[in-house]
Design brief:
Elements (H helix, E strand, L loop, with lengths): L4 H22 L6 H21 L5 H22 L7 H20 L6
Helix pairs in contact: 1-2, 1-3, 3-4
Keywords: Cell membrane, Membrane, Transmembrane, Transmembrane helix, Transport
Protein name: Multidrug transporter
Membrane topology: Multi-pass membrane protein
């Protein structure tokens, strides 16, 4: 597997996790059928892509990147789409998550390069 492929799978996993989580919010506790179906399908695609990622990238690092980027994207979508507030501690925490993902990708010898 080329070194780019696992990152492509990871990007797909992140995008579909964000779609699934956004739809989960819209599902209103699984009481709305359309968003509930989108949630299930998006999470299925996300976990499938994450499983392909794990063939190459160690589970701890892949999960750190997947969850970290997902958290930042969902927080941003929550702020923009759902008008949820982000106070200073939340923003600082999100910046630290981004910094952690950057450090992993820039310096970890465990990732395929």
């Amino acid at each position: 597997m080329s070194t780019l492929k696992p990152y492509l799978y990871l990007a797909v996993a992140i995008v579909f996790e964000v779609i699934g989580t956004s739809a989960l919010k819209e599902s209103d506790g699984f009481t709305r059928l359309g968003p509930s179906i989108v949630t299930a399908l998006a999470y299925a695609v996300s976990f499938g892509a994450l499983a392909l990622t794990l063939k190459t990238i160690p589970v701890g690092l892949a999960y750190a990147i997947w969850s970290g980027v997902g958290i930042v994207l969902i927080a941003t979508i929550g702020w923009i789409r759902f008008r949820q507030t982000l106070d200073t501690p939340a923003i600082v925490g999100l910046v630290l998550i981004v910094a952690g993902v950057v450090v992993i990708n820039a310096f970890s010898k465990s990732l395929p390069h």
